Amino acid sequence: MRQAALPLLFFCIFLAVWETLCRLFALPPFLLPAPSRVVHVLAAEAPLLFRHGLTTTLEILLGILLSLAVGVPLSIAMFFSPALEKAISPLLIASQAIPVFAAAPLLVVWFGYGMGSKVAMAAVIIFFPVTVTLLQGFKSCDPDMKTLFSVMGAGFLTTLRHLYWPWALPYFFAGLKVAVSVAAIGAVIGEWVGSTDGLGFLMMQANARLRVDLVFASIVVLSAVSLSLWGTVCIFEKNTVRWTERKR
Amino acid sequence: MGGAGEIDKSTGREYRTRDSNWGSRRKPAERELFGSDPWNLIRVMPAKGSACAAKSKCMKTSAPGVPSREFFSMLIIHAFSKSFNGLPVFSDISLSAEQGSFTVLLGPSGCGKSTLFDLLMGVLPPDGGRISLNGRELPDLRGAAAYMAQKDLLLPWKTLRENALLPVTVRRRPTEEDLRRVEDLFSLLGLSGREDFFPGQVSGGMAQRCALARTILFDAPVALLDEPLSALDAITRQTLRELLLLLQSRFGKTILMVTHDVEEALLLADTILVLSSPPMRILEVFRPEGTKNSREESPSFPGMKRRILKLLREGSR
């Protein structure tokens, strides 16, 4: 609690300064709306924000699921076969050099204006940290532990279940935490490029109409979605990876 | 110790199967391996008065209809060699350990003891030579030996019970009987009531005792111990020493242990092989006298200790 107090205090000061400046210089709301106005819009446009927020949240969640469904098996396969890793990992790294924005219109062409292209976009962004951190987790396994399992006559899948996977879990969660924080970027970029629904779509529409206060409100909702996803992963992690806290 | 009989019974059963199957199966294999080329083999026998020898006698009489048990080589290493980047770690190492014996490999650090263990466990392939471990040969050594290391190697996400059961779990679903065995073992090793603790919640000594329980539950006739006591404090080490001897006396394991602690070697071993620094050679073989709990008072003890220390100093040069 005490840890949260200081950042919270600074945030309040920041808001207060912002509010004061807006009122002092009588800035028009289409340039920079005061925090109080954003809060007002949040309340007034709640149903609209909720509807679009739900779409974006769904896109993010499906994107995470998709990237896990591809990333986890791929990571295990690369760990199992060093040859496969050698073949794939340079491509994986190179793929990160492609600007996401460049790929977004293509994805819209391939998957349409609907949810598909946004889910794909989010998955493309998340996929890399999930796969790479998990692989790193597998590789960091204590060689003596591996020897123990090999002496016990355990095969790869048994060892994966009892040793590699639990060992890599903290890494997996680290990757997932990065993933949920950047997943929103993917979904919103997808919506910017072409969509009929979602917070990104709402932002574009509001921006065009100089409703900057609504843009800010959308950003607030988007941040709240990202933060709560991050918090969910943290709680999940705490309940799964308990052993890191048990010290002698 | 109510359940101890269970363990004894199961160990006894193991003995009988070994007698009836391997007694006949192993001999030709041994002949094939060593019959045609006589070589200087160091035989490692259990000490005369040791509990294991006494037990084997009792097994002979108590199991009618079963061929009488005789000692055979549980572990044979023949003309073994291994080198890394052209530098020989050891070449032409040969030794054999009789069933139920306790052999200690004593050498300066970096002499290649751990490499030898890696080869015995089938983790590394040798450049040449043969191993026969309980009648099994390379590359089929997996699961033939139990392994205990300096680190307890307990999985932090599993309870002590689950950790001890691990060698069973990787093969099949643990049964009621397995759980009972763990319970008995834990009471034997002074871990009662800690079954549901996690490794992070117990002391280093307890963790290592749990590792010992796991070593027993491998159900392998050979146990390879890689400096199992090195990471413990002096008092814990003393208790653990006695428990390690149970491996031999109560569970009839053939033990090969690596250590650099001369005193430990003298107190535990039937046979001590003193090794040189690489390329590893067997410098000398010692057979400490007396029963293991009164060895310290034996008149030959200080002399042997001095001699071994001198050898080690010379060997590490």
Summarize it.
The complex is a heterodimer of chains A (248) and B (317). Chain A has ten helices and no strands.
Major sheet description of chain A: none
Summarize model confidence as the mean pLDDT of chain B. 73
CATH homologous group name of the largest domain in chain B? P-loop containing nucleotide triphosphate hydrolases
Counted up, domains of chain B total 2
Task: State the name of the first-level CATH class of the largest domain in chain B.
Answer: Alpha Beta
Question: What is the third-level CATH name, the topology of the largest domain in chain B?
Answer: Rossmann fold
SSE succession of chain B? HEHEEEHEEEHHHHEHEHEEH
**Any idea what the radius of gyration of chain B is?**
19 Å
Using the 3D structure, state the CATH architecture of the largest domain in chain A.
Answer: Orthogonal Bundle
Q: What is the overall silhouette of chain A?
A: globular
Query: What is the strand tally of chain B?
Result: 11
Helix content of chain B: 25-40%
Shape of chain B: globular
Greatest chain-chain interface?
A: A-B, 22 and 30 residues
Spatial ordering of strands, largest sheet of chain B: 7-8-9-4-10-11
Mean pLDDT of chain A, to the nearest integer, reads 88
Task: Provide the succession of SSEs of chain A.
Answer: HHHHHHHHHH
